[in-house]
Amino acid sequence: MLNVKILNAHGTTVTRDELVTLFATDMQYEPYHRKRTIDADGTIHLEVPEGPVILHAKLVIPGYGFMWVVADNCGMGYSKDATLEFVHEAAVSRIYEVEQLLKEKEFIPSVQCTSLLNDAKTMIGLANHAVNAAEYNIVALANSLWAGELAAVERARVRIANRARRDNFLFGCGGFQYPYENKPGLKEMFDSLFNYATLPFYLERTEWEKGKPTYELLDHLQDEFDKSGILTKAHPMWWAHTAGMPPWTHELKWEDGSIAREIDRVVKRHVTRYKGRIKYFDAINEAHDWCNSYNLTQDQEAEMTKLCCDAIHEANPDANAIINTCFMFGENVADARVQWGPVFERNMTPFTYLKKVHELGTEYDAIGIQLYLPSRDMLAIDKLYDRYSVFGKPMHLTELGVPSKKQDVPPFTTEGDLYCLRYMYYGLWHEMEWNERLQADWMEWFYTLSYARPEVEALTWWSFDGPGYVPAAGLYNENGSPKEACFRLKALEEQWGFHFGNK
């Protein structure tokens, strides 16, 4: 049992909404199901296995935002029966992490970066001897988070400056409404920002009635993108979620082979129809114990993924099969939460899912990563890329989005309930309310971080003129005016040598 206090700047316990977020992962960042009790004084008694663990909690951090932060005891982890104050441990861990990054001497950090790091170290030193230690701890955490993000982005800028333009990099966006016939100027802006677009291949759109496929919309979209010289991706070939599947698919079974037969039939038909026109295909979507409406075992989910990838390559050996995943940090695993399907003794994160897929010898071409409104900082995201690079596959950021205005978030519910998924995702980055400038700032930092990584080959914003999955994440306002993020993205692309469209 780990005994954990989480104190705010006043030295009192943080809100219960923050306390209940605490969970543990192993040293490879794989979450354990959260099992804990909370005393009346706010002390959390967290059940953890033998061996070291890393702690994660989502906190309101004055001067920084509302984000997930990590305490890992400077890379050593925490052992069972330890007693600790989380904010202090998170600050010390982050300071150590930033110092290790700077020791690589790959770049010269800015004065702002080093000043924030030194201030954080000073605050921790004072906290060790002060009566009001909690105030120093929270300031140290905020400053160290800022310092780490700046270090990650500054390193990325140096890497970009020292390398040639990545000619084949894909700057993408959801293209479901293209070419925006009734919205003057949007097509031209889309063409100037993107060389890549995602098309809606959801089976509920392409074959609502079994045996009667329809491709009128997709043919139209593909024709228009061909005219504009924009590459396309088909999304997705298979998605075991009722939102994207017609009623006739609900009766399919793994045991009688009907799932495998329909995957083979549907996927090969899609790929064959657009051979020579569409190169990229999301082979399967969110199949890692998240959208498992067929109640498959974890091994069967991996086998289903292989079936999708095999069907793509059999229909077109030159096609790129992308395995699309979500919840990259695995918070839903800690909560024992899924969208559809069973909860296992330890649910799969995208990482453990991909390990199973690899063990089957699956031939695929890229890892698809969704990062909607990620409540993790830029250094944490950079480390995520490090982690997934072990598979030796390119990474495509398939779905991205942060809002441009304040979001209404449901409150926590009863003690017996886990906080809602949207609240788990929802974060506040650098400020306590999202706005157009902050959306553009996040895009600029994230795109810089990602473009600098050779493993990352595509970035797809979701979406262009609509809300997308995240409300207010579109790049256009309802009145038809472009948001600041449009111009910020265009400036980045031109700085890196990309010039799309007619201008």
Examine the secondary-structure arrangement and name the CATH architecture of the largest domain. Answer: Alpha-Beta Barrel
**CATH class membership of the largest domain:** Alpha Beta
- Coarse morphology: globular
Mean pLDDT value: 93
Q: Decide which structural class fits the backbone.
A: alpha/beta
Quaternary structure annotation: single chain
- Note the gap between the termini: 62 Å
Question: In total, how many beta strands?
Answer: 16
Strand content: 15-25%
Largest sheet: number of strands, sense, barrel closure: 8 strands, parallel, barrel
Low-confidence stretches: 412-421
Give the count of helical stretches: 15
Question: Can you describe this structure in just a few lines?
Answer:
The chain is an alpha/beta fold and 503 residues long.
List the topology elements.
Elements: E1 2-5, H1 16-19, E2 23-25, E3 36-38, E4 44-46, E5 54-61, E6 65-71, E7 83-85, H2 86-103, H3 111-127, H4 133-161, E8 170-174, H5 186-193, E9 196-200, H6 203-206, H7 216-228, E10 231-235, H8 258-273, E11 280-285, H9 298-315, E12 320-325, H10 331-334, H11 350-359, E13 366-372, H12 378-388, E14 395-401, H13 421-425, E15 428-429, H14 436-451, E16 456-461, H15 484-495
Parallel strand pairs: 1-7, 8-9, 8-16, 9-10, 10-11, 11-12, 12-13, 13-14, 14-16
Antiparallel strand pairs: 1-4, 2-5, 3-4, 5-6, 6-15
Helix pairs in contact: 2-3, 2-4, 3-4, 4-14, 8-9, 9-11, 14-15
